[in-house]
Design a protein that fits this description.
71 residues; mainly alpha; 0% strand
Length: 71
């Protein structure tokens, strides 16, 4: 559910940055790339903040080595 929230926030952020760039006078292509970059950055921050939890859920330590025996 939190991934869906992160995607929604990234989409809204991309749209807002696109509109801001268009209002600033850039062409559509540059505004689209600017908005996509903002969305990718937001998702990158989200995934980086949840990376440790993902490793723990998979039963791996920080080096990707199993930290416990899973039967």
């Amino acid at each position: 559910m939190s991934l869906l929230l992160a995607l929604s926030i990234a989409l809204h952020l991309a749209t807002a940055v696109y509109m801001l760039a268009r209002r600033g006078g850039t062409c559509t292509a540059h505004a689209t790339l600017t908005g996509a970059g903002a969305a990718a950055t937001a998702l990158g921050v989200y995934f980086a903040s949840n990376a440790q939890d993902l490793w723990i859920d998979l039963g791996l330590n920080a080096k990707g080595v199993p930290s416990r025996v899973i039967d």
